[in-house]
UniProtKB/TrEMBL annotation:
Signal peptide: none annotated. It comes from Gordonia humi. Keywords: Lyase, Metal-binding. Belongs to the HMG-CoA lyase family. This is Isopropylmalate/homocitrate/citramalate synthase. One of its GO terms (biological process) is L-leucine catabolic process. Residues 1-202 form the Pyruvate carboxyltransferase domain.
Amino acid sequence: MMRSVALVPNARGLDRALASGIGEIAVFASATQTFAEKNLNADRDTALRRASTIARSASAVGLAVRGYVSMAFGDPWEGDVDPEQVADCAMSLLESGCDSISIADTIGVGTPGDVDAVVDAILDAGGNADQLAMHLHDTYGQGLANVHTSLQAGIAEFDTSAGGIGRCPYARGATGNLATEDLVWMLDGMGIETGIDVHALAATSRWLCNRTGIANASSVAKALLTRTE
Ligand SMILES: CC(=O)SCCNC(=O)CCNC(=O)[C@H](O)C(C)(C)COP(=O)(O)OP(=O)(O)OC[C@H]1O[C@@H](n2cnc3c(N)ncnc32)[C@H](O)[C@@H]1OP(=O)(O)O
């Protein structure tokens, strides 16, 4: 199923999303102060309040809303992030009308132990695993291990990108998202149906990387494409 989601950082973004007729938006807060300032030009509490206000207005008019908590596992400026801090942000966004929360490892430092700690903190604060998604980067090669741990915790939604491209310009030191091909290969092997043809996806990411000049970071895409060349 194809879902189009607009990233909405402020009230003006919500007006533009509503005018476009899109059915789902994403609002974003940061677990850390420094990233909130860099990514949103606001302190952490202001950014959270702004995201909560947008979520409330959007859900009141029937839009689906996903809330993002950035820098949930570590921050390039502040180091380790307290799981309670992540849980506070997540719960505040849920209480403001977000239908789901994506826990973002914006710089890809998280490990399965961190996933367990953050998910436990959110569950302890009253959240449910079926309200959670994971947004993973593969900077330290922990992406698939973190997916596996998340699946065991009952989380079934993951943000990835074809060829592992894409990153936040303010996330110093981060590589791209976990590659969709790598995720699909693992899920296929676990008997979890995604509806995605991994070979067709690898061919698409080769096209995408050729067009953009970005190197393909997916191990699976590189292996499959070598097999067919
Ligand atoms: C979790 C993630 O990784 S998110 C993805 C990556 N990160 C991002 O996309 C960064 C998102 N953040 C931002 O865009 C900015 O920090 C903002 C817009 C939220 C706040 O920045 P500020 O500088 O405080 O906003 P300000 O209101 O002064 O506007 C700055 C410029 O952006 C424009 N702008 C602000 N909001 C919007 C919007 N929703 N749509 C289009 N343009 C906008 C303004 O018109 C202004 O343009 P100008 O310089 O040509 O006049």
